[in-house]
Amino acid sequence: MKKPLSVAPRALELGRQVLDIEAAAVRALSIRLDDTFVAALDVILRCDGRVIVSGMGKSGHIARKIAATMSSTGTPAYFVHPGEASHGDLGMVAGEDVFIALSYSGESQELMAIVPIVKRLGAKLISMTGNPASSLAKVSDVHLNAAVDKEACPMGLAPTASTTASLALGDALAVALLDAKGFNAENFARSHPGGSLGRRLLTLVGDLMRVGERIPKVREDAMLGAALMEMSRKGVGMTAIVDENDTVQGIYTDGDLRRTLEKKLDFSATPVRGVMSANPHCIGPDSLAAEAVQLMEQYNINQMLV
């Protein structure tokens, strides 16, 4: 059943209130950030094993996202459900690993059941809680304080501002790690080959360019009519103009043709070198296709020689 439109003002007010509360929580977290953040970063950078992130309930969802973000930005990380960990999955934790545990209360029974084993294995323990005096915080090698003043839920029950703060803190860790490791756009593309970003960052000019007989080209001493025939045969609005050594001397495009028509020249008696555009914009085959597109947009051209 559709709600009456009379709820709209209240809904907008509440929506803005939630966003304001969560934004304030993240701002407060930023102000409070201290050397413990650097210490956590150092522990992860010195890790010879894997980063394992764990949490129950909503904290588990945040932990899973943190692991995914770290993995895609140069820090291999895995999510382990604490309930499953106590039934066999803890076998994947080794002494050289870093274990990041999320629990806003810091008293999660499922996490506290496996933490002693994690510590006994020799893995470093980083916790993210809203209670520095909690059981989890006390046994951690590094504790990150993710406390918030209040939840955005009107009843103060549903994890809202607290999960947003934890997520933001996880993002801060992941970004600081990628910066420390010198992780760049090319590295990012390698882990995202199926997405549009990966294609943009991995596709080279050489992957897309015309080669062999598909390249439109005529000698510089050819007549303009021959150049137009070559453009027509190859189905491209341009042709390269080359010398006897096949070295590019210029380019003739459909734009040049429009300017030539205004001069009413004899196509059969006009050498193409006299109407071509010399010193055309070129790009190497190992350049990114995205760079070629950027240059074409910058110079307002539709074709580029390789």
Shape: elongated
Please tell me how large the radius of gyration is. 31 Å
Helical amount: 40-55%
| CATH homologous superfamily caption of the largest domain | Glucose-6-phosphate isomerase like protein, domain 1
Strand order of the largest sheet: 2-1-3-4-5
The fraction of residues assigned to DSSP E strands is 5-15%
Mean pLDDT: 89
Distance between the termini: 62 Å
How many individual domains? 2
Structure summary, number of beta strands: 9
Order of helices and strands: HHEHEHEHEHEHHHHEHEEHEH
* CATH architectural arrangement of the largest domain: 3-Layer(aba) Sandwich
Strand pairing plus helix content: what structural class? Answer: alpha/beta
Largest sheet: 5 strands, parallel
Under the CATH scheme, which class of the largest domain? Alpha Beta
Low-confidence blocks of residues: none
Indicate the CATH topology of the largest domain: Rossmann fold
What's the tally of helices?
13
Give the oligomeric state of the chains in this entry, treating copies of one chain as homo and distinct chains as hetero. single chain
